[in-house]
Design brief:
alpha+beta, 46% strand, two-stranded antiparallel sheet, 22% helix
Length: 134
């Protein structure tokens, strides 16, 4: 299991599940079309942290999920973040023939004065779950 496989599994879960009562559009950082109406989600920065073993079997990952809302603002960002946490948080996510545990780390809400949009930054952590016989 590697970082791209985890990101693809998270992308699939987010783009196919209702968040705040609707399916949100999910983009990779830098791939959002100009003038995209909100709300939408952007998969942002990610980080891999080496475990005790010097291979991918003990890596932990973090991922920033950016939530953008132009209409309903802070409350919409909070509702989408809660739904993401309900969907993914404190659960095991299948990634290929392996799985990883995901949990909520933090949520930061900001107001972008230049665009009059609310911006939520939800940080998730993941950790590889060892499969029997590995």
């Amino acid at each position: 299991m590697n970082e791209n496989e985890i990101l693809a599994a998270i992308y699939g879960a987010l783009s196919s599940s209702p968040l705040n009562g609707t399916i949100c559009r999910v983009y990779d950082q830098g791939a959002v079309p100009d003038e995209e109406p909100g709300p939408y989600i952007v998969l942002g920065n990610s980080q891999a942290v080496q475990g005790e073993l010097q291979n991918e079997s003990e890596r932990a990952y973090s991922l920033d999920i950016h939530i953008w809302s132009s209409r309903k603002g802070r409350k919409e960002c909070q509702a989408i973040a809660r739904d993401i946490d309900s969907l993914l948080g404190d659960k095991s996510l299948s990634v290929g023939d392996s799985s990883c545990w995901i949990w909520f780390e933090e949520l930061q809400l900001l107001f972008d004065e230049s665009s009059n949009w609310w911006h939520g930054i939800l940080t998730l952590r993941t950790e590889f779950v060892r499969q029997e016989g590995m």
